[in-house]
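Newbie here. two chains, one complex. Structure please?
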Amino acid sequence: MQAGREQTGQSARDRTIGRLCCALLTALVASGSFRTLRAEPVRPDSQVPPARRTTPAVVADEMRPPALPEDPSAFSQVIEVERYAGEGKSVADLLSEAVGVNVRRFGGAGGRAEISIRGSAAQQVVVRLDGVRLNGVSAQGVDLSTLPIGLVERIVVTRGGGSVQAGSGAIGGVVDIVTRRAGGNEPWRLQVSGGSFGTWRGSALGSTQWGGDGAEAEAWNLLAGAEIVHTRGDWNFQPIEVETAGVVRRGPGPVTRINNASTRTSGLIRGGRTLGERGWVGWSDSIYYASQGAPGPATGGGETLGQSPTAHRRRIRNVAKLEIEGVELGAGHWDAKGVLFHRYERSRFRDPDPVLGGPVETDDRSQELGARTEWARGFDLGPTVHQSRMSLQVSQNWFDSLSSGDRDRLELGGVLQDEIAVWEGKVQFVPALRIEHTSGFDLEALPRLGVMLGPWKGFVVRGNLERSYRVPSFDELYLDEEFIRGDPNLRPEEALSADLGIELGLKRIGPLESLRLEVAAFRNDIDQSIVFQQRSPQILIASNTGAALEQGLEFSWAFEMFSWVAVSGNATLLEARTDAGRRLPGRPDTEVWLRFRLGGQSEHPWKFVVEAKHLSDFTVDAVGARVVPGRITYDASVSLRLDRLGVFDGWLPSRKLRLFVEATNVTDQSVRDSVGYPQPGREVGLGVEAVW
Amino acid sequence: MVTVRLQYLTRLMIAGFCVLSGACIEGDGSGGSALRIRVSSPDPRCTPLASAFPGLFDFVPGRSDRVVVPEPFPGDLTVLDVSSVPPAIPPDAPPLRIPADSDGDGRAERFLFPVLDGVLGVDEGLALVTASAYEEVLFFDPGEARLLAFEVEVPPGYSPSPNSQLPAAGTAALRTGLSTFACVVPEAGAVDSRGDLLADPGVLDPRLYCDPAGAPSFESNYTSGAAVAAGRLFVSTSNLGSGVGGPDPQLLPGAVLVFDFDLEAEPPRVSPHGSVPVIVTSGFNPTHVTALNAYGRSWVLVTHSGALGIEADDPGTPEVESNGVPLSPASIDVIDAERLQRVATIPLGWAAPAFDRLAIDPSGRLAVVGGVTSRHLFAVDLSVLDWIPDDVVEPWVLDGSAGPDAIIFDAARPFVIPGAPGGAPEAACAGWIVGTAFDETGTRLYATDRCDGTLTVIAMDLTGEPAVVPASSFEVVEQFSVASPLRADTLGEIRDLATLRVRPGRPEIDYQGPDVFVTINDPGLLCAIKIAAR
């Protein structure tokens, strides 16, 4: 019996290995050569719109991605993490390079990072992990440093109002984090890197699959991965200078960031199996735990500028999901999907000896349990081709906090959307409507209309008009601390978003193998923005404020020559003003990112990348009296594929072995996105990545 | 081939070693120009300050064109020339950042911010600065914008409190700051602001007793104000208990610390008073002390704001209630600065007076203070101090119940400053008269309201020097907006009006230009306003 099981296991392994070899061979043959470089895709640096939804084929060797924003007219960008292999980037780094996106950092590795899209606040961007919303009901803004890059496969950024797809909160846009999936031709992966300020990162990922022989057979797959990041975080920084009335006030010399060590651990496990020919069931669980010092702002007096030597924060998050999907079901040939999800978060903060006042201890717990069902079907109606979709979601949130009390919230939402294609798809209309109800608030109707024109190959015009909104968080509604208080009577934030743009994608023009250009104009009219502000001399109170306007232009470009030279970049021009004409704080008017790459994207033996980022000045207070100057920073990396050098043949323990050196802030600029939170100067790291 | 591999590996190992051991390539942000935050003022009358929420500023005696502004975060003392509009930082007195070792005792202070609350100009070369987090009074030379070293002498037999940073008893040392930690020993049967006996279990942790005799006692805290009278330095401490900032804070009995203060010595000398180092006051939360030389004597007036809570929100109303709530009565203690004796108390009722020093008219007859929970003014007639005998044993209560009545306006009969049309919502900000000051002639009183951002001009007519000041002597003659009201829709506008001072001297005669100066909390500004010529 034992021998039989071993034999069966051996047979399964053999089949798996055989399929892997076939898949690898197929991929290599398809790419043209075993050893020549695989050309970068037509849209370098991941500037591709999300794929138009197609009926998913039920395949055994790969988990399907969770549903992405299914609005083909939206301005979206897909960031394939693999393209940045050997560059030592974090999720926040990758997002900060996306057009229309600004990432505000509150420290170095492990420090909080928040996203703004098209001038939005962090809580006006919905971030989803494998389709499950990470924005909590308490503070809502998602800390990007909690997302483990080693377990992420791709990131999709959808700019502009997205409440129809993502519900409350998507005023600025939606970010979908898609974790790695089982299967493929690289089932085992290990990466270790280390560098400045005692920062170490290690990640390991393995997956396997079995079954699936023959059309009728069941296929299973399983993936497990983990990432650990640790940093001492004790970097030195330059105190800010303050210029008032023509006089410059300087602080002391370099100051050390104290109490800034952090250890973050992430885990991912997922599995799935086919259900006959047309069905599939999968489950996943993603866990995150962090324990880190919390030095707080460095704007005080004394030798450490007021940093806290004793504050500490611990945080845990778990996202679990079970989904079942079928294609072409019943007589109507419906594609259907059901998802059950659960998110749990706990955040504890403790400072036994704070700068002011007595000991502080907080313990917030939140969880969300929800279910979603989606139905989609394509059909023809006269001269038009339709892809219709409807979905229903229900979720219940619970929040348990010392400062906001025990709260819960029920959310119900339904979406109807149609993609109407005429003239052979050269014109598409995407009308959609979401009806959403959040307990304690009025029913919201969120209409959207998208238009996409593609009269010629490689040329697309897109436009969207959408209403979006954000329900106040529990902190904004109920927080009751010594000097800060919520307002239970807050109204939701409202926004009307519009954008219009063109995209040009061409192949093989003279020396250029590919060229892509995109220009978009956007406008967000926001009302009832919620801000904690002083309305009482004693305390800050969450308040609905007046109207604000965020409008601007986005440019992005990419071209590639000779398969090994690529230049890409983007620029965002933003005007973010209140109705009284004052600049909204924290929003640079101009953001430009440039990337120059020599060498192939992933299969070339070496890759050299230089990036430059420019941010114009920005204000840091509501009045606009304090202005942080603009800056230019440079990052660089070099990576070597040892398996491609030809000198280590037979020596290497893995199929792919990449060695890389990366440096950020090469010119060692003094950088801050927030006055109180310095960022590290130049950092250098060395890493190795092995793939089997 | 092996050689090539070894070369590669050697290079890679060297590179790796460089990277991983490489403090030499780790940056500290010094590669480019320093990050410089530029602060500007949206109002041409105002000078931007580095810090929001500037403290109580003051003029430099003898230099009516100079003020010293304490900036709490991170802790700067800024001298400004107010003869120009907007005020300017004089090139010979750049802002001083308070060092970590603020008192010069060789040890960095325990707290990370000094929290510079207020300045008292003593003479042209000395301003006293209260730092409530460091629990110190700093000695500042406004002429050269530097801290001054005083000889701090501690008398033999002085019993220091646990956190005192004074030199050891019987010794002296040069210090740039004076520690205001002291042991406060209330009389037997004393209660806290909640009415609980200090000696009762759970009210005051016996482990915190500092009295060598073991009596219920505590260490002073929250240095709130300073005054110089009769050659002595008086420092008030609020003595916060537990739950401060919440709805029901505990305040311990107030105290005034007494120091001998010899400015003629070289270096100047300061010393805890040998026999009366601490005067326990009659009320809770002494928020300032004001010196008065009148009626042939030197007095120190101690303002008790009382325990203050924050109003709980009523979920049944659309506004968020958040006004301050007086939880204990307010009063003004009168201390004879020569005899170091509390000689009188002027009860004000549940008034919650403001935290600045009292505004006293040039004749020394009227003392006025605003309310922090209302748009009220409270005023007392100081001429009754003349009635107090030198040999008083029990402090008089100057409310007319058994003697003279000093009260002109108290909580029961306040002078009401009108709210501005379209001002702050009553539920959240029903008024906070943060600053009061008399003009040079004593016929005009100015008052600033944090909530509405208004400056109110009140005319006073004391013609004939009436024996009793009638309430009708006060009349609002003008009110105008200096800052925006604290309303949800004014976010981004300059607002949260704060300290008010009137420039010494006669406008248009002794000086030209603005005569009234105010600070604004959001953003930090010092603004010059010309009222006299209006």
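Moderator note: Helices of chain B lie at 2-20. The first helix of chain B runs from residue 2 to 20. Thread marked as resolved.
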